[in-house]
TrEMBL record:
<keyword id="KW-0675">Receptor</keyword>
<dbReference type="GO" id="GO:0005886">
    <property type="term" value="C:plasma membrane"/>
</dbReference>
<dbReference type="InterPro" id="IPR017452">
    <property type="entry name" value="GPCR_Rhodpsn_7TM"/>
</dbReference>
<feature type="transmembrane region" description="Helical">
    <location>
        <begin position="101"/>
        <end position="123"/>
    </location>
</feature>
<feature type="transmembrane region" description="Helical">
    <location>
        <begin position="203"/>
        <end position="224"/>
    </location>
</feature>
<keyword id="KW-1003">Cell membrane</keyword>
<dbReference type="InterPro" id="IPR000725">
    <property type="entry name" value="Olfact_rcpt"/>
</dbReference>
<dbReference type="GO" id="GO:0004984">
    <property type="term" value="F:olfactory receptor activity"/>
</dbReference>
<protein>
    <submittedName>
        <fullName>Olfactory receptor 2A12-like</fullName>
    </submittedName>
</protein>
<feature type="transmembrane region" description="Helical">
    <location>
        <begin position="29"/>
        <end position="54"/>
    </location>
</feature>
<feature type="transmembrane region" description="Helical">
    <location>
        <begin position="244"/>
        <end position="263"/>
    </location>
</feature>
<dbReference type="GO" id="GO:0004930">
    <property type="term" value="F:G protein-coupled receptor activity"/>
</dbReference>
<keyword id="KW-0807">Transducer</keyword>
<keyword id="KW-0812">Transmembrane</keyword>
<keyword id="KW-0716">Sensory transduction</keyword>
<feature type="domain" description="G-protein coupled receptors family 1 profile">
    <location>
        <begin position="44"/>
        <end position="293"/>
    </location>
</feature>
<feature type="transmembrane region" description="Helical">
    <location>
        <begin position="278"/>
        <end position="295"/>
    </location>
</feature>
Length: 315
């Protein structure tokens, strides 16, 4: 504990992350399960990044964006899971105020980047299906780099606002966070003052960073669906649909739980439920994305076999 200058009230200098269970045996089971999930996520996404970098035939806007998505997924799970794994086995589950601040900021920045980046990937599919003859002209490398850089800059800025407003609140005890990492709503619930104004600011950010991107993605896929219906051949329609199915699956896995967590009032905060739901936009998407994007992707399979020296996929 420490006392700010000029104040008699003490503020917490560290938080205790409660995690999932206090049972050592169950924690060891969770440790093995989450360790396998984490390693699979990092290896799977790392493999996609490596294949896209090594195979020149994958140097296209679609795979450039997929490479960035894989990097974001690796960043998100690495921001939270290593510490969670340590806490599952260690007796001490504390995290310093500064470390909590940093974890909240980095996780929020990467998560917001992923939110906006799904718009970029939807736009890529829109151009590829609705304007296939002008695909390389519209999505030039200059535009791709500007879109990627813009999403990162915008997200890190808004995450800074969210983190600054949350962590500047007075925390005078208790300091037990009922979560496995320093997530904004979980930490904010411990503040010893009214947080209504901060909630309103967060709601505005969420509308701008979650609802607006989701609306644009939906509009893109409505237009894509209209174009697919006009394709005469069944094979052409199936091919066009398959190029979008992976993206729609990943967007659903990410946005559904994230919207529930961040777009509701603090009064409906449920620690145990939120802790479990957060796994569905933090851990599981990073684990499933490599499977979703590579399982039916002939280009990724071909790149893998070529790197391994086994030639191309025969189908």
């Amino acid at each position: 504990m420490w006392t700010p200058p000029g104040q008699n009230q003490s503020w917490v200098s560290e938080f205790i992350l409660l995690g999932f269970s206090g049972d050592p045996t169950f924690n060891r089971i969770l440790f093995i399960s989450f360790l396998l999930l984490y390693l699979s996520s990092v290896l799977g996404n790392g493999l996609i990044v490596a294949l896209i970098c090594l195979d020149i035939q994958l140097h296209t806007p679609m795979y450039f964006f997929l490479c960035i998505l894989s990097l974001l997924d690796m960043g998100c799970v690495t921001t939270t899971m290593p510490q969670m794994l340590v806490h599952l086995l260690a007796r001490s589950q504390t995290i310093s105020f500064a470390s909590c601040w940093l974890q909240m900021y980095v996780f929020g920045a990467l998560g917001l980047t992923e939110c906006i980046f799904f718009i970029v990937m939807a736009y890529d599919r829109y151009v590829a299906i609705c304007h296939p003859l002008h695909y390389t002209v519209i999505l030039s490398w200059g535009l791709c780099i500007r879109l990627a850089a813009g999403t990162w800059a915008c997200s890190f800025f808004f995450s800074l606002i969210h983190t600054f407003l949350t962590m500047r609140l007075p925390y005078c005890g208790p300091n037990v966070v009922n979560h496995y990492f320093c997530e904004g709503p979980s930490v904010r619930s411990l503040a010893c003052m009214d947080t209504h104004l901060i909630e309103m600011v967060d709601l505005v950010i969420s509308v701008f960073m979650v609802v607006a991107p989701l609306s644009l993605i939906l509009a893109s896929y409505i237009r894509i669906g209209q174009t697919i219906i006009k394709i005469k051949s069944t094979q052409g329609r199936c091919k066009a649909f398959s190029t979008c199915a992976s993206h729609v699956t990943v967007v659903t896995l990410f946005y559904a739980p994230a919207t529930y967590i961040y777009m509701r009032p603090n009064s409906s905060y449920s620690p145990e439920q939120d802790k479990q739901i957060s796994l569905f936009y933090n851990v599981f998407p990073a684990f499933l994305n490599p499977v979703v994007y590579s399982l039916r992707n002939k280009d990724i399979k071909g790149a893998f076999l070529k790197v391994m020296g086994w030639g191309r996929v025969p189908w």
